[in-house]
From TrEMBL:
Compositional bias segments (type: Basic and acidic residues): 121-132
InterPro entries membership: FAST_kinase, RAP
Source taxonomy: Eukaryota, Sar, Stramenopiles, Ochrophyta, Bacillariophyta
PANTHER family attached to this UniProt entry: FAST LEU-RICH DOMAIN-CONTAINING (PTHR21228), LD45607P (PTHR21228:SF40)
Domain RAP: 1194-1278
Recorded coiled-coil stretches: none
Identification of the protein by name: RAP domain-containing protein
Length: 1286
C-alpha cells in the first residue's frame, strides 16, 4: 500500500441521518457486488490457507442462521493489503467454489436486492460483535497457552462501529503492544495467529523466508503493509535465528571418538564450513534483507496504512476527518525476542565499528538505513533482471548496510525501552524480569551495549524485585512467597554487565542486590542451576578485575565474597552436576579474584601479569581459604576422570587457575599432567592461547616434564603464526625459558658469530625441534609487527631468548631500532625537529615500560653479549671473530649485534626512563635496580645520574629497613646487594661510606648475629641469604671503594672462611662447605678475598683479620663457571698474555734506553703483612705489570678498551666493525673525557702505588694516534718517563 499525505474532507452539517443511511446502503451494496465479481474471477486461485480459515470460522459459528452462512462463505477470502478498498469484515457471497467442508444446501441469494443487502449488513454486525467479544478475548487467551511467542497485547483490535473503533484505537495506542489499524476483517485476528503458527512450523530458515514471501506485501510494503503484527515480526526473526543456531550446533559436535568425523577430517572436510555456508546463504538472501527493512520500519513507527477515523470540528463548525497513520507498537516480549535473535545471528557490528545511536535522532538514522538497504536490494534485482548473465545475486552490495541496520535495530530497541522507563516511574508490572534480562543479554552479546540503557533497565528491575520481596515477606510465609525470583534472570543480567563492561551505580546495585538476596532468602541459592552459579561467578570476577582494585569499594568486595562463598559451597556439594565449562569458569573466577588467597603467598607475590585481577580483602580469611581448598579439590577430583571431555580452553583455564592459586599437591600435579597430554593429542583442536597459557601455568607452578613440554610446544601451528596474539607467543617462550627446556639448536639464529653454512637455512616449519621452532616463531612475529606487542610481551620475548641461551642478533637490533630509532631515524629527526615517540614511522620509547620491564630489557641485552663465551664452547669461533673470551669479546659482540651508537642510546633511554617516569628510581624494586646496574657494568656503560639515584635508593631503603619498615621495596636479596655493589665497583662509582650502611643492613637482614657476642655470626643464616661467590664479589667491591667498615669485614670473613677474630678461622672448612653447599670457594672468590686483605694490610686497616694457615690450599675448588642465572662471576685469576700493542710500546721504550721486562708478576708469598709475615705462603700470582722496571719500581700499563668505561650521557665518535685477517674485529674509538678507567684498573693502580710503584698509563687511542711514527713514539715515551720520575 502506498502511503499518501494526510487530507481532510468536509461533511455538510445539514446532512440527515437518512441520507447517510442511503449512502451507506449504496456503498455496502457496491462493495458486496464488487466482492462477488472479484471472487468469481479468482475462484481457481483459492489457497489452502483460505480454506482452513473458512472451515475454522464456520465451525465456531454453528449457531448462525443458514442465510448468514451462505452470505459469508466468499468474503472470508483475505483482502490483499495492496488493494485500495477493504472488504467489510465477515461478509461472504456464495459462489460455485467450495471453501469449506460445511454442508451447503441453500441456493445463492440475489446480492443486488435490498433484502440481500440488509441480510449481509446484519450478518456483518453480528459477526463483528462475536469476533470482538469471543474470538479476540477467550480464543486469544487459549492461543497464548499454545504459543509462548504470542502476546494478546500485540493483537489487532477491531470494531465495526466507526466512532467506537476510533475511540478504542486511540486508547489502545497508549497500551504496550497495541496496533492501530484501518477497518480490517475481524477474523484476521485469528488469521494472524494462524500465520504465526505457520512461521513456527517452518522447518528451516529458507522455508520461513518463503512463507514470508507468500504473504503478499509483508516484504515489499512499508512496515509489512499490515500483513504482519508485532508478534509475527518477533516470531519470524526469532525462528530464523533459532534455525541458524541449531544448524551450527548440529555440526559443532566435539566427540573425538566419532569415526565419521575422523574420516571427514582426514578428507580435509570441515563440518563447520557447512554451518557457515548455510548462515551466509540465509543472511545474503534478499528476502531476509527486505524482512529486516520491514521490521526496522515497523520499529521506527512507519505507517503501514492510513485510516479516515479521526473527526473534529474546525473554527467554522465544520466536521472534518483526517487520515490517521496506523503504526505497530511492539511489546516488551517482542522487542526482547527481536534483540535476542539479532544477537544470536552475530551480524550486528560492534559499537567500536559502528557508534551507538543517540536518543535525539535514532529513528531518523534507523529509517534512513532501512531505505538504503531496500534501494540496494531493488537495484541489484533490477541489475539481475536486465543483465544477460546468469550469475547469482551479489549480496556483497548490501551486506554492510544489512549489518549496519541490525546494529541500528538493536540500538532502537534499547532506546525505546529506556524511554518507556523514563516516562513511567512506578512499578513495571507489564514488563517481566525475564524479558528485561534477555534484552540486556542480547545487547551485551551483540556488543551494542549502551550504558544509559543498562542503567535505565537495571535500576527499575532491582527496585521492582525489592518491592515484590518486601510485599511478599509481609503477606506470606517464606515457604509460600509469590514473587518471581528466578536465578537465571539475575545471572544473565550480571553476565550482560560483565560482558559489556558497563560499570556504574547500576552494576554496583545489582551486585549488592544479588549478594543480599542470597543471604536473606535461603531458598534462592537452592534454585540456582550449576550454569547460573558458574556464570555469576565468572561475571563477578570479570567486572571487578576489569575495574581494578582501586575502583572497587568495600561494599562491592563484600558482595563479591558473599557470592563466591555460595558458589564455592555449591561446587563442593555438587561438582558432578557442573558441566566442564562451568567447572572451568568457576575455578577461573576464584583465581581471578584471589578468593581464599593471601597477598604474601609465594605464587601471589610473583604473578606474571597474564590477566587483570584483584585480591579480595576477606573478613574471614581462614574460612575462605578452607572453602577455596575444598571447592578446588572437588573440581579437580571431578575433572580428572572426565578430563577428555574438556575443551582446550577449559583445560588451560584450569591450569591457569591452579597456577594463580599456587596449588602444587599431588592431585594438582596429576591434573596438570592429564591436561598436558590432552593438549598434546594430535586429534584435539588447540589454539596458540591454549598452548601459551598452559605452558605458562606449568612453568609458574615449577612443574617440569621435559617430554610433556616438548609435546605441547610441537602443537604450535607455525603456518598460522601471523594470527597469533603477542601475549600467546610471549607466554610460550617465557614458560620454556623459565622451565629450562633447552633448545636443540641454540645457535640457529646467530647471524654474527656463526657462519651461514653452519646455521639452519629454510622456513621455520622445517626445524624438527619444537623448542627452537617456538622461539623462531616468536622472534619472527616480533620483528614483523612490533607495535602489536605490549611492553611486557616485548620484554618477555627478549628476556626468554637470553634466559634460555639463544642468541638472535637480528631480533635484538630490530627491537632496539623500534624502541629508540635507528641511526638513520635519529639523523632525520635531528634534521626535521619533528621527532615524536609512539608513531608507527618513528620510535616507541620506554615510557610505557614498567620498572621490571626496563630492568629485564637491560639484562636481556647484556646477557646476549655475554653468551659469546657459551657459543665459543659449543662452536670454535676462533676463525670467525678475533676475540672470543673476556670483556673485550663481550664489548665487541654487543657492538656487532646492535651497533655501538644504538646500544649506548638504548641504555641511555632505559636509564632516563627510570629517572623520569619512575620518580628517580623510587618505584623500582631492588631487583629492578640491580638488574639495570649490572647490565650497564657488564657492557662498560656509565650513566652518572642513574648510578647516583641507585646509590641514594640503596642507602635510604637500608635505613628504612633498619627502622623497621620491612616491605618489598626495602628488602634486598643477597644477589641484588652483590650485583649492585659490584656494578658500582666495576664502573668506578664513588660509593663512599657505603659499608657503614650496608654492613648493619646485611647483618640485620640475615639475623645472623648471636646474643652472646657481637663478633660471632651464625653461618647457617648467612648461607640462607648469600652464596659465597656473592660474598666474594662484595669483598672485592669494598676493596675498590677502600671502605673497610669493621663490622662488615667480620661478616664477610665469617661467611667466606669462618674467621671472626685475629686468630684465624673459627669454623672448619668442612662446616662451611656443608652450610653453603658449594664444595668450597671458587677461585674468583679467593682472589677477591686476597685483594681485600692486601688493601687492608697496605692501608693498615685489617681490623685484626687474617687468613687461616692453610689458605688458600684446601679452601678452593675448580671454578664452576656457572652462568645459568645470567649474572657473571668475577674472574680475577691472572691470565697473562702480551698483546701486539704491548710489544709495540715495549720496543719504543727499548729504543730510548728504558730497561724493562714484560708481564712482571707479584706473587702472594711476596706480599707481607704488617708484622712482616707473608699474607700466605703460596706462590700465587696476584698482580701483573705490562712493562716493569723492577729496580726503579716504574710500571707501564698499556690500557686497552677493557680498562675503560663509556659515559653514555656524552656523545662522541663511534667505533666500527672490521675484518682483520679474515676474522671479524672491532675498532674502538675512545677519549679521556668520555672514557674514564674502570674499577679494576683503578684498584690495581692504587695497590701498586701502595706497594711503592710509580705507574705510567698509556691509553690505546693515544698510541694509535701516533700512527706508527717511531720518532713520535720515542718522544711520547720520554715525556711519560720524565713525568713519572718527578
Amino acid at each position: 500500500m502506498v502511503a499518501k499525505e494526510a487530507t481532510e474532507e468536509e461533511i455538510s452539517p445539514t446532512t440527515t441521518k437518512k441520507t447517510k443511511a442511503k449512502k451507506k446502503t449504496k456503498k455496502t451494496k457496491a462493495s458486496v457486488k464488487a466482492s462477488v465479481k472479484g471472487a468469481s474471477k479468482k475462484k481457481k486461485k483459492t489457497t489452502a490457507s483460505a480454506k482452513k480459515t473458512t472451515k475454522k470460522a464456520k465451525t465456531k459459528k454453528k449457531t448462525t442462521k443458514e442465510t448468514t452462512k451462505k452470505a459469508t462463505k466468499k468474503s472470508n477470502k483475505k483482502a490483499e493489503p495492496d488493494d485500495t478498498t477493504v472488504v467489510a469484515s465477515s461478509t461472504t457471497v456464495k459462489t460455485k467454489d467450495k471453501q469449506s467442508s460445511a454442508p451447503d444446501s441453500s441456493a445463492p441469494e440475489d446480492t443486488d436486492s435490498p433484502e440481500a443487502v440488509n441480510k449481509v449488513q446484519e450478518a456483518r454486525n453480528k459477526m463483528a460483535k462475536e469476533a470482538s467479544s469471543h474470538s479476540f478475548q477467550n480464543d486469544n487467551q487459549n492461543n497464548r497457552a499454545r504459543n509462548s511467542n504470542y502476546n494478546p497485547r500485540n493483537s489487532y483490535s477491531y470494531n465495526n462501529n466507526r466512532k467506537s473503533n476510533y475511540n478504542n484505537q486511540r486508547n489502545n495506542n497508549n497500551n504496550n503492544g497495541s496496533l492501530s489499524t484501518k477497518k480490517l476483517p475481524a477474523l484476521q485476528v485469528s488469521a494472524s495467529r494462524e500465520f504465526n503458527q505457520q512461521l513456527i512450523g517452518c522447518e528451516s530458515a529458507k522455508e520461513l523466508l518463503l512463507t514470508l514471501q507468500n504473504q503478499k506485501g509483508a516484504l515489499t510494503s512499508p512496515a509489512g503493509g499490515g500483513r504482519l503484527n508485532s508478534v509475527n515480526f518477533s516470531t519470524a526473526i526469532h525462528r530464523i535465528a533459532r534455525h541458524l543456531n541449531n544448524f551450527f550446533q548440529q555440526h559443532n559436535n566435539n566427540n573425538q571418538n566419532n569415526q565419521q568425523q575422523q574420516q571427514r577430517r582426514q578428507q580435509n572436510h570441515n563440518p563447520h564450513n557447512d554451518a557457515k555456508h548455510n548462515r551466509a546463504v540465509i543472511l545474503s538472501d534478499p528476502r531476509f534483507a527486505l524482512f529486516l527493512c520491514s521490521l526496522a520500519e515497523a520499529l521506527g513507527e512507519v505507517p503501514y496504512m492510513y485510516s479516515y477515523k479521526q473527526f473534529y470540528q474546525d473554527k467554522d463548525g465544520n466536521t472534518k476527518r483526517q487520515k490517521v497513520p496506523c503504526t505497530l507498537q511492539f511489546g516488551a516480549r517482542d522487542m526482547s525476542n527481536i534483540a535476542w535473535a539479532v544477537a544470536k545471528m552475530k551480524i550486528a557490528p560492534p559499537q567500536s565499528a559502528s557508534p551507538l545511536l543517540s536518543q535525539h535522532n535514532y529513528k531518523t538514522l534507523l529509517l534512513n538505513t532501512a531505505k538504503q538497504l531496500r534501494d540496494k536490494v531493488v537495484q541489484v534485482a533490477k541489475t539481475k533482471t536486465t543483465s544477460s548473465s546468469s550469475h547469482e545475486v551479489n549480496a556483497e552490495v548490501w551486506i554492510p548496510t544489512l549489518s549496519l541496520l541490525c546494529g541500528h535495530v538493536m540500538d532502537t530497541i534499547g532506546i525505546t525501552v529506556l524511554q518507556s522507563y523514563q516516562q513511567h516511574s512506578g512499578p513495571h508490572v507489564n514488563n517481566p524480569f525475564q524479558e528485561r534480562a534477555n534484552l540486556l543479554w542480547a545487547l551485551a552479546t551483540a556488543q551494542r551495549a549502551n550504558p544509559e540503557v543498562f542503567e535505565g533497565v537495571i535500576h527499575p528491575m532491582v527496585a521492582d524485585m525489592e518491592r515484590q520481596l518486601s510485599s511478599s515477606s509481609e503477606k506470606t510465609s517464606n515457604s509460600q512467597q509469590q514473587y518471581e525470583l528466578r536465578p537465571q534472570e539475575w545471572s544473565n543480567s550480571i553476565w550482560a554487565f560483565a560482558t559489556a563492561q558497563c560499570f556504574g551505580e547500576g552494576q554496583v546495585r545489582l551486585l549488592i542486590f544479588m549478594a543480599t538476596v542470597l543471604e536473606t532468602v535461603p531458598a534462592f541459592a537452592g534454585m540456582f542451576k550449576p550454569q547460573e552459579f558458574a556464570n555469576t561467578a565468572w561475571s563477578v570476577a570479570t567486572l571487578l578485575s576489569k575495574k581494578g582494585i582501586q575502583a572497587v569499594d568495600e561494599s562491592e568486595q563484600a558482595a563479591a565474597l558473599v557470592i563466591l562463598r555460595h558458589v564455592a559451597r555449591a561446587v563442593t556439594d555438587r561438582a558432578s552436576q557442573f558441566k566442564t565449562q562451568e567447572l572451568s569458569n568457576t575455578a577461573w573466577a576464584f583465581a581471578t579474584l584471589g578468593f581464599g588467597m593471601t597477598a604474601d603467598s609465594t605464587v601471589a607475590s610473583s604473578w606474571n601479569s597474564l590477566n587483570d585481577y584483584v585480591l579480595l580483602k576477606s573478613d574471614q580469611p581462614q574460612q575462605d581459604e578452607a572453602l577455596l581448598r575444598d571447592a578446588t579439590t572437588a573440581i579437580l577430583k571431578d575433572a580428572l576422570p572426565r578430563i577428555h571431555k574438556f575443551r582446550s580452553q577449559e583445560l588451560n583455564n584450569i591450569a591457569w587457575a591452579l597456577a594463580r592459586m599456587g596449588r602444587k599437591d599431588e592431585l594438582a600435579e596429576s591434573v596438570l599432567e592429564a591436561i598436558g597430554w590432552q593438549l598434546a593429542e594430535e586429534r584435539r583442536r588447540v589454539t596458540s592461547q591454549d598452548i601459551g597459557t598452559t605452558l605458562w601455568s606449568f612453568a609458574s607452578l615449577e612443574y617440569k616434564n621435559d617430554k610433556l613440554y616438548r609435546a605441547i610446544a610441537s602443537r604450535l601451528a607455525v603456518d598460522r603464526a601471523r594470527f597469533f596474539k603477542p601475549q600467546e607467543l610471549s607466554n610460550t617462550v617465557w614458560a620454556l625459558a623459565t622451565a629450562e627446556i633447552a633448545p636443540q639448536y641454540p645457535d640457529t639464529f646467530d647471524s654474527v658469530l656463526i657462519p651461514p653454512k653452519r646455521r639452519f637455512q629454510g622456513p621455520l616449519r622445517n626445524i624438527d625441534d619444537p623448542i627452537t621452532r617456538c622461539f623462531g616463531v616468536a622472534a619472527e612475529q616480533l620483528m614483523r609487527r612490533p607495535f602489536e606487542f605490549k611492553s611486557q610481551e616485548l620484554k618477555d620475548v627478549l628476556y626468554s631468548f637470553s634466559k634460555i641461551g639463544i642468541r638472535h642478533p637480528d631480533l635484538f637490533k630490530s627491537t632496539a631500532e623500534h624502541l629508540v630509532g635507528s641511526d638513520d631515524t635519529q639523523q632525520k629527526s635531528r634534521n626535521s625537529n619533528n621527532h615524536r615517540r609512539g608513531s608507527n614511522n618513528r620510535v616507541r620509547g620506554f615510557d610505557d615500560f614498567s620498572p621490571q620491564g626496563l630492568g629485564n630489557m637491560a639484562w636481556a641485552y647484556a646477557r646476549q653479549a655475554q653468551l659469546v663465551e657459551d657459543v665459543n664452547k659449543r662452536n670454535d669461533i676462533s676463525a670467525t671473530v678475533a676475540t672470543k673470551t673476556g670483556k673485550m669479546a663481550v664489548y665487541a659482540t654487543s657492538f656487532f649485534d646492535v651497533g655501538e651508537g644504538l646500544v649506548h642510546r638504548l641504555f641511555g633511554e632505559i636509564a632516563e626512563a627510570n629517572l623520569r617516569v619512575h620518580d628517580n628510581l623510587e618505584r623500582l624494586k631492588p631487583q629492578d635496580i640491580s638488574n639495570t646496574a649490572w647490565a650497564m657494568a657488564l657492557l662498560g656503560m656509565k650513566h652518572r645520574q642513574f648510578l647516583d639515584a641507585a646509590y641514594q635508593q640503596l642507602i635510604e631503603r637500608a635505613e628504612q629497613f633498619m627502622q623497621g619498615r620491612k616491605n618489598a621495596m626495602t628488602i634486598f636479596k643477597g644477589q641484588e646487594i652483590c650485583n649492585l655493589l659490584w656494578a658500582f665497583a666495576i664502573l668506578n662509582f664513588p660509593a663512599r661510606d657505603i659499608g657503614s650502611t650496608i654492613g648493619p643492613y646485611m647483618i640485620r637482614a640475615t639475623g645472623c648475629q648471636t646474643n652472646d657476642s657481637s663478633d660471632s655470626f651464625d653461618i647457617e643464616r648467612i648461607a640462607r641469604m648469600f652464596k659465597r661467590m656473592e660474598l666474594g664479589n662484595i669483598a672485592w667491591s669494598c676493596a675498590v671503594f677502600g671502605d673497610f667498615e669493621p663490622e662488615l669485614m667480620r661478616f664477610l670473613y665469617s661467611g667466606l672462611i669462618g674467621a671472626s677474630s685475629g686468630t684465624g678461622g673459627s669454623s672448619s672448612m668442612e662446616d662451611l662447605n656443608q652450610c653453603f653447599g658449594d664444595g668450597g670457594l671458587q677461585s674468583e672468590a679467593v682472589m677477591s678475598l686476597i685483594y681485600l686483605q692486601l688493601a687492608m694490610e697496605l692501608e693498615r686497616k685489617n681490623n685484626g683479620l687474617c687468613f687461616p694457615g692453610d689458605f688458600p690450599d684446601g679452601w678452593t675448588r675448580q671454578s664452576l663457571a656457572h652462568r645459568s642465572n645470567g649474572f657473571g662471576e668475577l674472574e680475577f685469576a691472572l691470565q697473562l698474555s702480551t698483546s701486539n700493542l704491548q710489544k709495540d710500546v715495549s720496543k719504543a721504550f727499548h729504543r730510548i734506553g728504558f730497561d724493562h721486562v714484560l708481564e712482571h708478576v707479584i706473587r702472594l708469598d711476596e706480599l707481607l703483612e704488617n708484622n712482616g709475615e707473608p699474607l700466605a705462603a703460596v706462590p700465587l700470582d696476584v698482580l701483573s705489570i705490562d712493562i716493569a722496571d723492577v729496580q726503579a719500581r716504574i710500571a707501564v700499563e698499556v690500557d686497552g678498551p677493557t680498562h675503560f668505561v663509556t659515559d653514555i650521557e656524552m656523545t662522541a665518535d663511534q667505533g666500527y666493525p672490521k675484518v682483520h685477517k679474515g676474522r671479524l674485529d672491532y675498532s674502538f674509538k675512545m677519549s679521556r673525557d668520555r672514557n674514564p678507567v674502570n674499577g679494576p684498573t683503578a684498584l690495581k693502580e692504587r695497590l701498586l702505588g701502595l706497594l711503592g710503584w710509580k705507574t705510567i698509563n698509556i691509553p690505546f687511542w693515544e698510541w694509535y694516534d701516533l700512527n706508527g711514527d717511531e720518532k713520535l713514539e720515542e718522544e711520547y715515551c720520554r715525556r711519560l718517563l720524565e713525568q713519572a720520575k718527578q
